[in-house]
Design brief:
By secondary structure, this protein is an all-alpha fold. The protein contains twelve helices and no strands. The protein binds fe (ii) ion (FE2) (2 copies).
Length: 310
């Protein structure tokens, strides 16, 4: 369908946006980020007469540190996400209220993760700042997705972020971090529900077009953090540690939404919609197979490492 077809669906979705905005506002907590940071752990750095950062001050394992850095730098890039969403969904009505509200909620995430990391000396604050500068200067470009694709992408991305935060929090082995990341993950879950409901409504308005958007976005999905310096290397380490890997992505992010939307049960698809559904089935199968290969290789590598260690 043409861009005007997508725009027509967007117009028809307006009432659903308003309804879900109201639902979101009724169930979102106004939680206080400062309540989640262990301030008494903090002390001055060198310029104020204190001690500069050094690696042995961090109580985090190297992989927990990496996961927190990637999650934080991804959250840091919020100005780009805001610009992308405002461009995609327009700057009027319920969409404007939603995008601004969403932005305000998301801004808490980077601020309290950074507070946690700096106060606990969990990571090198100088390198973190350099990486933040590089990430924001790179910006995030979604490639000009049509609105339906953006709703689908954001559903998956919010769920992926929820899972990534929760698992990163657990990897810290610190109850304070675990509580902080569980709290952030609850926000991401509500964000996911907002977009998931829009996609469900879109499946009723324009089923074939929406299944095409889902097939495209499942096939082409990449995390918003790809512009973070060293992302590929850091993401590979995070996957090796089982914090976020292909198996988790397929089982805990992609499939729950595919099932929720009942893609393989819905009726009334035209020929293009049927083709999109078939494409999606093939993409899912290939992703599942890739996930299985990844897990098998990881298991072999771990077994080899422990054999060498003995
Ligand atoms: Fe977030
Ligand atoms: Fe979110």
């Amino acid at each position: 369908m043409t861009t005007s077809g997508h725009q027509a669906v967007l117009v028809q979705l307006e009432a659903v946006v308003a309804e879900n905005l109201e639902r979101h506002l009724a169930c979102a907590d106004d939680w206080m980020p400062h309540e989640y940071v262990p301030w008494s752990d903090g002390r001055n750095f060198a310029r104020l007469g204190g001690e500069p950062w050094s690696a042995e001050q961090s109580k985090l394992s190297p992989i927990a540190r990496t996961a927190l850095e990637v999650n934080l730098l991804t959250e840091d890039n919020l100005p780009s996400y805001h610009a992308e969403l405002a461009r995609t969904f327009g700057r009027d009505g319920a969409w404007r209220v939603w995008v601004n509200r969403w932005t305000a909620e998301e801004a808490r995430h980077a601020s309290c993760i950074r507070d946690y990391l700096v106060v606990t000396r969990g990571t090198d604050p100088e390198r973190l700042e350099q990486d933040r500068m590089a990430t924001l200067q790179a910006g995030f470009d979604s490639g000009g997705k049509p609105p339906l694709h953006a709703c689908v992408y954001t559903s998956f991305q919010e769920l992926a972020t929820r899972v990534a935060h929760r698992n990163a929090g657990s990897a810290c082995e610190d109850p304070v971090a675990e509580r902080l990341f569980a709290r952030i993950a609850m926000d991401e879950n509500l964000h996911m529900i907002f977009y998931r409901n829009l996609v469900r409504a879109a499946l009723e308005i324009a089923p074939s077009l929406t299944v095409r958007a889902i097939a495209d976005e499942v096939g082409g999905f990449s995390m918003p953090g790809t512009v973070v310096p060293g992302f590929a290397r850091r993401a590979a380490q995070i996957a090796q540690a089982g914090i976020y890997d292909l198996r988790i992505h397929h089982d805990d992010v992609i499939m729950p939404l595919v099932r929720y939307w009942q893609i393989f049960e819905i009726e009334g698809l035209d020929a293009e919609g049927e083709q999109a559904r078939q494409d999606l089935a093939e993409i899912l199968e290939a992703q599942d197979a890739r996930a299985a290969r990844f897990v098998a290789r990881r298991w072999e590598a771990r077994a080899a490492r422990s054999a060498r260690a003995h």
